[in-house]
Amino acid sequence: MSRLFQAPPKFHPSEWHVANKMQCASTESQKSSSERMIAESQRLVDEIEKTTQKTQSDVNKKIEQRLEEIKFWRQELDNKLEQIIHETEVLLTFKTRLEKALESCKEPLVIAQKCLLNRQSRVGIDLVHDEVEQELVKEVEVLQGVIALLERTLEQTIEQIRLNRSAKYNLEKDLKDKFTASKIDSYCASLTNNTPDVRYADNAVKIEGNFISPEDWTDFSNINVEKADKQRNNSLSLRAMIDSILSQTANDMHKQYEMVNVAFRNRVKEVRDAKHKLEILLASVMDETALQEKNIAALKKAIADKEGPVKVAQTRLEARNHRPNVELCYDTVQYKLISEVQEITNNIQRLKDTLAQAETELKGLSRRQLSLEEEIQVKANTLYIDEVLCMQMRESALAGKMGKWEGWVEAPWVGLAKVCFFS
Predict the structure, then answer these.
(1) pTM for the full predicted model
(2) How far is the C-alpha of 41 from the C-alpha of 47, rounded, in Å?
(3) Which residues contact 268 (CB under 8 A, 6 or more apart)?
(4) Which of 92, 110, 196, 290 sits in a 20 to 30 Å window from 346, CA-based?
């Protein structure tokens, strides 16, 4: 029990002095460490403040540079967009030119085919594969070739318009994205440390998988610009080709149109001359027929006129045959009477033979007249087909259009509203 109330141990004075010295030393050490920490902290705070300000200033500059880059590319994209829109509008006008040119070829083709069909109505020897038919067949081939070429060119134009619009879509999408990025970076550039709506954002420094490199960013817009340039150049080349095609096809069609017209005029003149010659021949045949009819009438009258003399001679012979006895003498009178009867009979036969020949000639003239009349009708039918059915149809339906074919070829482009086509 006495141990529980034992007094605490006492230290030696030297130990006390040592302990005090240690406390002082420890305190001074701690104070020095604290002072160094304060100085280090102040230096660190100053250093970090400068670093933070410098970094923030660098970031601000980078944002400004980024905004300038976006502004540059937006300007580039906007220029290319304006160019491709303008080129597409011009190409749409050329598409309209092609469509109208294609439409204007259909009626000439129908008319050429109708002319060929109408000329099948020619009859007889006039149903000939003449120069007109050859040129009409060639005209049909030219028109069909032009239509096929214009249809292919129209398909190319439609496809090029689609490609232009695709390039336009890519430019617009890129511009839209860059406009949004520009707004975001402009907002970021406007933020300061004292901006009210700045806040902490979780996972703000996380790099998402869909981030791309600056090189890819530049390449993306550059590719869009190059595609737009490529399609614009293709469109310009296509427009030049369309102008060339329209010029060449218009010239070919107009040339063939004139060739057919010349062939028609030559053929009509030829048929008209032939008809005129036939009409002259017909008139001469009709005159000859009239003369032959008069000749036949004269021959018949001559034969009739010989009936009296032959009857008189035969009556005399019959009467003298009744002379009696020795008076029935073959005298000179008897001889002459017999000769007279024979002569008149022979002459009548000669007249009849001549009459038969004359009637044969008259029949031949009649057949010739009928043949000439039929041939003149054939020529008249051919002239009606060529002059009335074909040439007048061509002149009324195509004359105006052929003059406007030259409108397929447009002068140097002046504005989008200028279109040289059929009104």
Answers:
(1) 0.73
(2) 9
(3) 383, 386, 387, 391
(4) 290
